[in-house]
Amino acid sequence: GIFTSFAMRPPEPPGSIVEAPAVPDGAPSSLDVQRSTISALVPVVTSSLGRHLPDQSNKPYCGALFVKPGVQAQVKRNKEELTAVVAASHAGGGQLQLDPWVDRALGDRLALIVAPASARSNVGPGSVRTAAGTDAALHWSLVLFGVAETVFIFVSVARVKDPCESVYNKLEAALCAFDDAVALVLLFLGLGSALILTLGVWAMGLAHSAQVLALASARLVISLPAVGVSATVVMYGETSVLECFLCSVAGLLHLAMVLCGCAKRFGKFYWWVLSLMVLLIAFAYATAFGVDSVSPFGASDCPASSNKQMPVYLAELQQWQCVSWGSTSRLDRLPRIGDAVHRGLCSDSFVALFGPNTASGKFETKAVRCPASCSLDSWTLTTGEQTRTRFFGCRVYHASSAVCGAAVHSGVLNLGEEGVIFVSRAEGLPVYRSCNIGGLSSSFLDPGAVGNDAFYFPSADTSDPMDLVTLSPYRQVSVPSASSPWEAYEAEVTWTIAGQARTQQVKVGPMSQPGQLVALNFCSAEVDQVGRSNTCS
What we know:
Elements (H helix, E strand, L loop, with lengths): L1 H7 L21 H23 L16 H20 L15 H10 L3 H4 L4 H36 L9 H6 L5 H25 L3 H29 L4 H25 L2 H23 L18 E5 L4 E5 L3 E4 L11 E2 L6 H5 L10 E6 L9 E4 L2 E4 L3 E2 L1 E3 L4 H8 L8 E8 L9 E2 L2 E2 L12 E3 L11 E4 L3 E2 L12 E9 L2 E8 L10 E3 L17
Parallel strand pairs: 4-5
Antiparallel strand pairs: 1-2, 1-18, 3-14, 5-10, 6-7, 8-9, 9-13, 10-13, 11-12, 14-16, 15-16, 16-17
Helix pairs in contact: 2-4, 6-8, 6-9, 6-10, 8-9, 9-10, 10-11
């Protein structure tokens, strides 16, 4: 009432002098009484307004959109009353005019908390609803991106934990240097993010706008490190770590939403610029991931993979084999791509079909089709009273032996059966001993001057395979580097071809040592002569 009576009094004409009534000596004048009354009321009223107006800048009223309904109604009434007072006094030129005797501080206070007529003219119920909808969308975006990032943080923990148990690709070779530290850091960040998100959802339920933005900004202390760790993992794992990629993208989008909230709250243009820059970074990051992968730390000749075993390359066989650490695997021997299937007769020997052994084809594998018309008579040699079969040796046969007869003897084919068999060259033996397999006996041969080429059947189903590779557990011999982490590991490889074993100690990576016959290489994407790549996923 006092405010209304003061502000509604008609203004004095310009240049007029307001005279105070005469009062007895020593008695307080009415002007003194009015000034003292206003001086007592101004702190009380402005303090009350200050509690309900979080942003006291000169702008349309929007401070009660996210406060309790009772307080919102009271503040709205206060604003309407003050707006009406000032609107009534605007008849004299549109400026707030008060009696000359009114305390100047009161006028300054009203000018700060009441919008000018030009600003009030554009404010209506529709704009208030629009502002409320925009704030709600912003808050939901903050929560949703925060929830997405938190979920992907926990999923990424499962992806990067226990890297030293495998070390079958570039990512695991890099992470093994830190053991489980990366997973523990992500787990800690995920738990902290979940806690702050819970508080943010609680603040949204209470319609505390300022608290939602403040909690989202505080979560950046967790979000930004999570983005950094996840992005670093993506640099090594590339497309094989989709979980970490999604985690880092969700973190960048959350950061962009926080910057949008700051721009809306503080009204500064540079907040919008920062938000746009973060969105552009997220877009470029996602494009690089989807098109050509992100690998600034990785060597260009070492693409990421999701191997579950170590790719082992055997130079003598010119083929890849997938083997686990500390285990033995049977070698799969196959013909070269494009090699034709050779039609063999019952009595055709290996040397008649494929010629003598050469250095380039020392252990090559060939495919032969044996006819169904073969019988024991096809492979029987009779010298006087001595009868011998025409396959010499036991599991490894001399090159003069009948291929289809040796296949029946080794158990690859049944007698009288037609079929395609794989036969591989082997190094010759000093002596080819005879043996009985399945009731069929082979013959003894001392090669002498006959020549010493040999062959065997790599697919023979026996309890003692002829072709094996054994990979010992790896050893870390140095600290993994950022560009080539795999060079810090080495292992011993033992491989057996046609029953003859060899062993070498090699480092993980491409062949780099003279005389190296085996490589543990998950880096260079290569395809061997039988069409298999060094991908063991």
